[in-house]
Amino acid sequence: MGSLDRGVLTGFICRLCSEMHRVVLHIYGEEGIRLCISEKINRYLSINVSRSDPLPKTICKNCLERLENQHRLVMRIEHAANMLKGQRRARVGRGCYVSLCENSSGPPHLPIRK
């Protein structure tokens, strides 16, 4: 058995890839809770995990790394979207205009609307 204090168990099945691994992390252990593993799985993957379901409650190092990469990607995308929305609101507030279509027969520039 691995150290339970560090949230590591040895010789269990990964909840995500269903493969046996020598070292896994318990999803609801101290480290799993600190890393918000169950919340990330439920948010980013098309499965739901809970303490009461009958399936494994462990995740392997490879799947954890992939889950963390997905989390970083989503956080980066959300940050960029918020930044772009803020810039758009600032332009609208200053009365800036943007061209919607250069080949249009209508007016060349239309005001940006929320």
From TrEMBL:
Gene3D superfamilies: 3.40.1800.20
InterPro entries from the UniProt entry: Znf_AD
Binding site for Zn(2+): 14, 17, 60, 63
Domain of life: Eukaryota
Residue ranges of coiled coil: none
Signal peptide interval: none
Record PROSITE patterns: ZAD (PS51915)
SUPFAM superfamilies, alphabetized: Glucocorticoid receptor-like (DNA-binding domain) (SSF57716)
Protein name: ZAD domain-containing protein
Organism, as annotated: Euphydryas editha (Edith's checkerspot)
Top-level taxonomy: Eukaryota, Metazoa, Ecdysozoa, Arthropoda, Hexapoda
